[in-house]
Design goal:
With about 160 residues, this protein is mainly alpha-helical. The protein has 2 domains: about 5-35, no CATH class; about 40-140. It has 3 helices and 3 strands; from the N terminus they run βββααα. The chain has helices at about 40-105, 110-140, 145-155; strands at about 5-10, 15-20, 25-30. A 3-stranded antiparallel sheet has the order 1-2-3, with no helix packed on it. α1 packs antiparallel against α2 (about 110-140). The termini are far apart.
């Protein structure tokens, strides 16, 4: 019978059952002799740095692939939005033409008068939108004031 105070690993490179003090533990693997060797601390650190370098390169490569995929999707979405904008622009233009022609026909005016009324109404909408945009843009600050103030506060102790 086996000594209950010793650890036994059954099998060679295959999952094995570890017995310790008569208890059964999770499967373990026996290391190949060429893997188990003693290195200096410098060699271990070089290995860790090398592994870290490889990991970072692989993560960057993965990020590039993901970004390319997302850029492709964004490009397709932009094309769809562009097509939608063009279709809406043409649709809006034809609706305005129909409105002008319908107004002129309904009121027994010449066609140019209907187009004139539509042009004046569109100009009014444009002026109102322009003034609202100017009001909103005047409230925008190019420099983030809170960030600048906190940077000044944080850099004050560092100044001589």
């Amino acid at each position: 019978m086996a000594d209950p105070d010793r650890t036994y690993v059954l099998g060679n490179r295959d999952p094995a059952v570890v017995f310790m003090n008569g208890s059964r533990f999770a499967p373990a693997y026996r290391m190949a002799p060429e893997v188990v060797h003693h290195e200096s601390i410098g060699g271990l650190i070089r290995g860790i740095v090398s592994d870290l370098h490889t990991l970072i390169r692989e993560e960057i490569a993965l990020a590039r692939v993901e970004i390319r995929t997302q850029v492709g999707r964004a490009r397709m979405a932009a094309v769809s939005f562009g097509m939608a904008a063009a279709a809406l622009a043409f649709g809006g233009a034809f609706l305005l033409i129909a409105l002008a022609m319908g107004m002129a026909d309904l009121l027994n005016w010449p066609a140019w008068a209907g187009f004139l009324v539509v042009a004046v109404l569109l100009s009014l909408v444009g002026v109102i939108a322009l003034s609202a945009g100017r009001r909103q843009i005047s409230q925008i600050r190019a420099v983030p004031e809170e960030t600048v103030s906190t940077l000044k506060e944080n850099s004050a102790p560092c100044s001589p």
